[in-house]
Amino acid sequence: MPKKPHLVLLVVVVVKKTKLHFLISEKVKILSFDKVDWSSISRIYQQGLDTGIASFELKIPTWQQWDITHHKFCRFKAVIEDKIVGWVALSPTSTRQVYRGVAEVSIYISSEHRGMGVGKSLLQRLIQESEKEHIWTLQASIFNQNKASIALHTAVGFRTIGYRQKVAKRLGVWHDNIILERRSNIIT
């Protein structure tokens, strides 16, 4: 008998979380960001680094360091009630002209807003705007343990194209990466 009330409670929690997900998704605004937002952006970036499965980086770069390694376009922040809760940006994958339309995605969501549709809203906007900038392929290199990020990218049309075994160390531990990409349907 104790299992039935437990199951009912679980269903109520799932329904409430789904409703919260829709409420959050409706309230999120996707806007461009720049240097004035760096304090909030870097705080969210640090939360990602603290998970140990978001990046090989160990510390947040300065704005100047970050700025020179990322495209000037397609830098978006997710805002809910005037608070930045996530961000996404692109960096070039190569300096060779032939790869000018290929970019790597960086996306980070505040710890309080993960799993609520913020990341999906950011990636959908990024896809739309990156095609206007003639980006034909978006790539993501994700730790194989980061199941949420893999699921997020897959949900917006990325597909797995590779697996890099022990590609690099973080704090002395080897990590594998899953390589995903999304090819534009409009740029041919």
From TrEMBL:
Pfam families: Acetyltransf_1
Family matches, as InterPro entries: Acyl_CoA_acyltransferase, GNAT_dom
GO molecular function: acyltransferase activity, transferring groups other than amino-acyl groups
PROSITE patterns: GNAT
The organism's place on the tree of life at top rank: Bacteria
Keyword Transferase: yes
Domain N-acetyltransferase: 28-176
Record keywords: Acyltransferase, Transferase
PANTHER family: N-ACETYLTRANSFERASE (PTHR43072), UPF0039 PROTEIN C11D3.02C (PTHR43072:SF23)
Name of the protein this chain belongs to: N-acetyltransferase family protein
Organism: Aquimarina algicola
